[in-house]
Design goal:
about 70% helix, two-stranded parallel sheet, about 290 residues
Amino acid sequence: MSDSTEQSKRGIMGRILPKAKPPKVDPTANMSFLDHLEELRWRILKGLLGVLAGVLVAFFFRDFIIKELILGPAGTDFFMYRLMPIDPVELSLISRRLPGQFFTYWGTLIITGIIIGSPLFIFQLWAFVEPALESGEKIKTFLNSLFITFFFLLGVAFGYLILVPFAVQFFTQFVISDFISNEFDINEYFTSVAVWTLACGVIFQVPVISYFLSKVGLLDPDIMRKYRRHALVAILIVAAFLTPPDPISQMMIALPLLILYQFAIFLSKIAARKRKKELEKAFGNQSGS
């Protein structure tokens, strides 16, 4: 076979299977594994500075945070009980261990500091992760971290304002015998409130995760639609477990979670469509060159 024929076939194959263009700027191309670890270490340290600043802010407003926020759902005058179909009862809180109130005091300030400092911490972590997904422009990094922070804080607000009051009153009023009185340890109460609140912040990352996984081609909106009934059943089970046994309370928990899942499908569809256009543009430019 002549050289001219070989080059002709290579040219045809080149047009059929165009090579993807490498990114113009890859800031991590020349970084070793240890360099990545070093960058991650500094990113985490900078994020922890934001958490430390949040703890200092929480310490300054410690009386309000402890009395009104952490102990608020324990009283019958908590403002959310006026908006919910709940007949609240007073919690009986005790401290069974010598350093019980000490741990609750500083635990409250640290958790509050984490929530206050979460925007900076999320920005630093995302600035480290984003170059692996796409070209990391500063404005894109800022907007994406703002996107993640918004859903985290929205979940925290949902957990504290909706889930915590329902759960606290449910477990307070749940009795198996009149001979047993519900007296809750302050550490257990604080741990439960903190876990429920932060867990909702993590759960509300479902739209964020679906968007970025769809953007890199690891998730498809059709898959989420296919398993929507399974997600609905799981949501109803969670709502039934965490709320009093009445349909109104369960729907107040289940409906926002269902809307969240549907919104995640919507974002996945947008990301998948955007990825498809980018691929078509890239292959179109290659075939036209």
